[in-house]
């Protein structure tokens, strides 16, 4: 059984804080669940371009108001508490936060914990061999 508390993650190496978002990585690839789970804050008044070309993601909003826009189609969806969206087609999108937005995010393949978006909004696919080499 795995038991973790958010307060253990905050201010640790698994608390990734950027200009537009803050992801607290609760479950990671090393936990062996087959997915990863983040408690993520999207900062108020921000826009982030995201494209998970290496992952699929499900997002459940628990706080705040924002919007997701699919780049290819221009389709926009309001984000508010109780709303779920799943990026099952690797959709490149804009994520906008009117207020601070708090979400629970599930990724497959699971994240290792160190990922941040590159210039295209992509998380790299970090392989186990690469992780081991970086630990040495």
Automatic annotation (TrEMBL):
EC number: 4.2.1.108
Keywords: Lyase
One Pfam family it belongs to: Ectoine_synth
Coiled-coil region: none
Gene Ontology BP term (one): ectoine biosynthetic process
Catalytic activity annotation: (2S)-4-acetamido-2-aminobutanoate = L-ectoine + H2O
GO terms for MF: ectoine synthase activity
Classification via NCBIfam families: PRK13290.1
UniProt function note: Catalyzes the circularization of gamma-N-acetyl-alpha,gamma-diaminobutyric acid (ADABA) to ectoine (1,4,5,6-tetrahydro-2-methyl-4-pyrimidine carboxylic acid), which is an excellent osmoprotectant.
Protein name in the entry: L-ectoine synthase
Organism: Paenibacillus nasutitermitis
Lineage, opening ranks: Bacteria, Bacillati, Bacillota, Bacilli, Bacillales
